[in-house]
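User: Predict the complex.
Assistant: Input components as received:
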Amino acid sequence: AQTVTQSQPEMSVQEAETVTLSCTYDTSESDYYLFWYKQPPSRQMILVIRQEAYKQQNATENRFSVNFQKAAKSFSLKISDSQLGDAAMYFCAYLLQGAQKLVFGQGTRLTINP
Amino acid sequence: KAGVTQTPRYLIKTRGQQVTLSCSPISGHRSVSWYQQTPGQGLQFLFEYFSETQRNKGNFPGRFSGRQFSNSRSEMNVSTLELGDSALYLCASRFRQGGGTEAFFGQGTRLTVV
C-alpha cells in the first residue's frame, strides 16, 4: 500500500522569507502523480501544485516550486517570498495513475510571522 | 463557475442516529469522492462515484454508504452513528476518473456526534 509521510508537523517562517516543506512517499509503482494541497482555516482544500512522476522537470507555480526526487521518493515544496496568506495546513498527496484515491500525508501546519 | 458545494456545513447528531451529507460537484464533473478528516487519522478515502456507480471504496465499515444521482450530485450516509464518526467530511469532484486530473474540494461538513 502506498504511504505518504510529512515529518514536520509544524513549521514557521518570517514573512518574505523562503520555507521548504518535506514529503516522502512509498510506492512500488512508476506512474503516479503527486500534489501539494493547502487547507486554510476555511477548511477548503486548495491545490497548490502538482507533479507527474514521468516528468523530470520540477513543477513551478509562481512562488511555489517542488523538488521531486523520484529515486529517493521525495517531494518537497518550496515557498518563496512567504506571505501572510500562505499560513495554512499543507498536505502532500499521492495519486496512482488510473486510480481514484488520493493518499494524503498527515500535514504540516505553516505559520507566517509578520 | 460554481465550486463544489457541500451541505450542510455543520451537523450535530446523537449516537445511534443516522445522517446524510450532500455534495454537488462542479458542473460537468462526473467523479465525486468522499474523504473523512480527523485529527488522529488525518485524511482518509471513503469512496468514489463515477456515472452513478461506486468505483472504489476505502476501509470503512458498512455503516458508511453513498450514492450518486444522474446529475452527478452525491450523498453520503452514515447509519448508527458512533462518537468516533465525528469528523470533517470532504467531498471532491473531478472531471473524469484517472489521468491525474485535479480534484476540487468543497468546504466540508463538520459532523459532531454527541
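Chain B touches chain A through 26 residues (CB under 8 Å).
Let me know if you want any component modeled separately.
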